[in-house]
Amino acid sequence: MLRSFSVASVQAYHRPTNLDEAAKFLTKAHCWALAGGTVVVPEARKQRPEGIELIDLQALALDVINVDGEHLTLGAMVRLGDLSQGDQVPDLIKEAARRELPSALRNQATVGGTVAQADPESLLLAALLVHDSSVEFHDRPNSSLGDYLSGDRQGLILRIVLETSGHGSIASTARTPADKPIVAALARSTNDGPRLALTGVAATPIEVSPTAPVDNLAPPDDFRGSAAYRTHLASVLSTRAVSEVK
After folding, report:
1. Could you give the domains of the chain?
2. What's the predicted TM-score (pTM) here?
């Protein structure tokens, strides 16, 4: 695989067998974590005079799914394809994972890589937010997913832990059925009322108030939709998603 890369870009490939070794590599700015490769591999093909080193995480045994009562633990290297078909995975998470990428890429992409990328249009991240997910790290204190997405997004991700209770709903609008949604609203029922998250309205997916979902929003303004249009979609789709979980 590495033969197809520019020598100027990829200078070395490492496959650590323990977490300390992996974390030590990743303290260096020129070392990139390689999980599923759906993001890193295309980036690594670009000419980079300073050079990079790839740190393959596949030998760290982080591809396990565990259920403990009403909590589900997803190893950072769990593939989205496996997540979308897991028997004990909440339906909202399964559906969001299925919609995240085409089937071929779902079998490469990982949960940890999806979290680290923090794609503002990620349905899976929005689903994880409403399932009250937390992120466990090797080399820093654990945090809620929301805090991680709004923070510096540093650290070697080990696991994502989420609540499994409740049922969910996705309401979205895209230019075509094959496109990623311009805006999506994902809701989940809980004993304390619905939880709601939006994609396409901020730098990352965000959790918002189900009763005032567009308060303080500042959506991007681009060729796929103006800020005003995205705000309108967020309002309409939020109402729809929340109504389906009440």
Report:
1. 2-58 (3.30.43.10), 65-163 (3.30.465.10), 168-243 (3.30.390.50)
2. 0.92
